[in-house]
Prior knowledge:
The complex is a heterodimer of chains A (174) and B (103). Helix content of chain A is 71%, strand content 0%. Chain A folds into two domains: 1-85, no CATH class; 126-174, no CATH class. The termini of chain A are far apart. Chain A has helices at residues 5-27, 31-51, 55-79, 95-115, 128-139, 144-165. With 103 residues, chain B is an all-alpha fold. Chain B has helices at residues 3-25, 29-53, 60-90. Chain B: The chain crosses the membrane at residues 6-24, 31-51, 63-85.
Amino acid sequence: MSVSIGQSLFLIFFGAAAVWFGVVVFRTHSMVRSAIALLFSQTAVGAMFLVMQAEFLGVLQIMMMASEMSVMAIFMVMFMMDPGGLGAMDMTHQKRLSLWAGGIGLTFALAVIWLTGWGPAAQAAPAAAEQTAALGRELLGRSMFVFESAGLTILTAMVAATMVAIAPTEEHGR
Amino acid sequence: MSIELAIALSVGAGLFGVGLYGALSQTNLVMILMGVELILAAALVNLVAFWRYLHPDVMAGQMFVLIVMTVMAVEMAVGFGIAIVRFRSRGSVEMEEARELKG
């Protein structure tokens, strides 16, 4: 069993932050606080990527989630009846079932993780510049079809989301 | 076995458990989307951990992370599109009231 103390400590720290802020998302009544807690949780996930020496993905995750959660916070304020949480509305249902499902999923996953032999761990990751270059070659080489499909999927989703969201007019009907 | 791999995967399991609870227990569409985001974040952590500690020389692992990030963005865009049309027609995005999907 190989152990790198510094990496383990940082993984535990940022991992605990990610899970804790994930819990806060569903514990606070204020929707804006929920969105900000989710932003912190995703940022902690990005920091975990940095600890695991995936620099490009870590920075990408933090930048992407910062913009995504800002948009989400705006939507929260627009769509919620009580965005500030001052009325302490209960917006949950089937709580017991959800707790059981989450708990069973967590326990099962932990059992698999700690009871499985994962084989020997790789000691070192390639350097950051080397990784980015290799990822670029992967994207525009072997995985080009998958990469282009992802781009097309985003384009389709953008058009679909815009078409769904456009207000129906009288002559076009619904 | 690497202890760092087990820690990262355990964090992924934690995020998955919390996200599953949120996606199932919330009645508001935007909050359900937040739960799904947490579940996808768990998948991301697992993928990066597998890449780093098992196969750091194979870049298909990082490629897979980019695909899951795409899925996150698409899920948000389509989810908010549905939220807008739902809010316009019903004045709320409470899913308890959504008995059918006629818009």
